[in-house]
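During the reporting period the student researcher (J.K.) took over the structure-prediction task from the postdoctoral fellow and processed the backlog of single-chain submissions. One of the processed entries is reproduced below for the supervisory committee.
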Amino acid sequence: MANAEKIKNVRPTYRFALMMLCCVVVWAFAFPFIALALEDLSYTNLTLMRFFVVTIILLIILAIQPKKFSKLYKKDVIPIFLLGFFGVMIYHLALNYGEQYLSPGAASLIIATSPIFTIILSVFLLNEKFTKKKILGTAIALSGVIFISLWGKQGENIEIKYLSGALAVVVSSIASAAYTIAGKPLLKRYTPLSLVSYAMLLGSLGLLPILLFDTSIFSQAAAMSLSTIGAILFLGLFSTVIGYVLWYVALEMKTASEISIYLYSIPVFSTIISYFIFGYMITILFVFGGVLVVIGLILVNLKEKTKKTN
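J.K. obtained the following structure tokens:
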């Protein structure tokens, strides 16, 4: 009986780990693909093109499988719009802007503050407990990210061309944390697919005013290379639709502070992906940093031992 119970507990754990692996991998691909797409598009037009793809995909899903979507309550329209606009649109606009003026290592270091903001907000707004074990695991994982960002790639320099670029990435980091925290209570009334879809569709409306002041999207879209088109399609389908739905599925299962630590594994995969796409050379310190990230993840997700009762 005891062995059977252990097997039941192990299966969900492996499924959760596999789901988080898929989530962080598609988000890790986003950083080199954003850099690739910025060669042909401005940061605003990249955001517009990405969420044009997202909108089309979600509307198709909504039309084909309407029963999979929770009812949208009138009282939640404004909160969900704000969730999508600030947590997703502002995040991407700020990140795309910042990546123009920061080296990849600098961007990785700054965006690594997102789990810290998430943890702080979760303690004060969601009343989550942050144990010594979680503090230690988070600190170890963060130190791994620092090793990867500073010394993980040969010839990598921490470069900040403009302070506004660094501040923009800080804004995106805070927006990412807010998206997680604000989404947690809404998941009591909506499925992950429903909440992501409504947030994306309503939040995308906030991007429309950009077209009134900048019509360069049409000329830039017409001149896009095939690699940029492929990058935008990947960013729209995998990094946004699939990635964000998986994130909210995880948020249904665990606390915000527990899942936020998985974001520290993104630089690990992003560096490996950059090695194959851009030919960056990886150092032994990257391996060391990756090991620290894994140790941190394990520590945070270790279950507290409970005393047996007779």
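The committee noted the following: Residues 24-66+73-131+160-256 form one domain.
J.K. will present the remaining backlog at the next meeting.
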